[in-house]
Design goal:
single chain, 2 domains, alpha+beta, 2 helices, six-stranded antiparallel β-sheet
Amino acid sequence: MNRREFISWVGVGSAASSLPGMITACSQTNSQQSTTPVRADGFQEVGTVAELDKNGQILNEKLAAGKVLVIRDPKDTSKLAALNPTCTHRGCTVSWNQDQSSFVCPCHGSKFNSDGKVVNGPADKPLPTYTAKLEGDTVLVKAG
């Protein structure tokens, strides 16, 4: 083995031995990004009523169970609709379109109604839904 090969092998070995440490560091960083804690009743704060009314929706990507998108139920605005906004077709993030009264996927045009059921494909599975409620000025979601 010549000197160049030896140095190459030492470099590969040191990179390989540091990989587990880097993976652990990344995992700890991601777990620290969770937002408010889950309460004893299973609900978690995802935003405020002011934010919901201003934007027409709240997208929270740090819920304990993953992403959640909350809107006021178009059939009864005193109620909320909450679902996982990951399109079941190819994983793009849907958003609420007030004019169409549906969640619309920007990638391939799938549409879902306010309770997550498919209105228009290519998606063929509904979006997972969550229980949501208002408590004072806080929007809460119970995932699971």
